[in-house]
Amino acid sequence: MLVSERIGQFFLETETGRDRLEYTEYGAGDAWVVLLHGQLMPRRMQQPLARALAAEGLHVVTLDLLGHGRSDRPADPHAYSVQAWAEQVLALLDHLGAAQAVVGGTSLGANVSLEVAVLAPERVRGLIAEMPVLNNALEAGVVAFGSLMLAARFLPFTVTGVRLLTRPVPRGIVPFWAGIALDTLDQRPASVAAVVHGLFFGRVAPHSRQRRAIQAPALVVGHPADPIHPAADAAMLAAELPNATFVRARSILEWRLRPERLDAEAAAFALECWRPRGRVRRVTR
């Protein structure tokens, strides 16, 4: 089924300046879903899921958070934090005239979604959290992204060199996920260092006490054998959230390469969120 797709933008005034954010809408109607990307990845990574959800009648929006994709990329670390990104999601809803939305994302996007539910619970119809980054991911995250921050800050030619090598590759001639990888490598040293710095020196996710107070229905997806996004973090989150459903992916690549099962889970969940309010029973699959 073909769905309409429209690119939009809005501007946000913050303490650090006036920032431009870009998004894509899929479908139409009042059953809103906002999908957020992983750290340093573009919003286009959520395109397959967005199209699948829109084909079910949902109005889906994918957003490039500040410092990512085609949104502005300031070099000031103070511009970046999980709380600031959550405020950008709320600003997007205001811009679209959406009173509520199912908010979800992958990795960083999952954490930002949780923060939205803490900041403005009345705006969140439901949560989709794939690969949340919580306690068990700390060491692997520090190793992976700490090294990246140091390289970007003190060896900027490494980041620039990768960008110069990958940017000329036409995205239309490579497989979709290869194109996403190339887009993820299209970074600027100052902004990528600022993004990681902002994450490291702010809180990565709401505290466990705050997570336990989130009443919105939630779909939590965990991956096996993923060192940066341990399944234990997803299982812990599902146990903390009062109205959560936990779904275990068959592999870390299932939702990327064989998405049908998890697309169906996400669509059924989001549609249920837009039916009259009711308690979502916890199940484990």
UniProtKB/TrEMBL annotation:
Signal peptide: none annotated. InterPro entries: AB_hydrolase_1, AB_hydrolase_fold, AB_hydrolase_sf. Residues 32-137 form the AB hydrolase-1 domain. Keywords: Hydrolase. GO terms for molecular function: hydrolase activity. It comes from the Bacteria. SUPFAM superfamilies: alpha/beta-Hydrolases (SSF53474). This is Lysophospholipase, alpha-beta hydrolase superfamily.
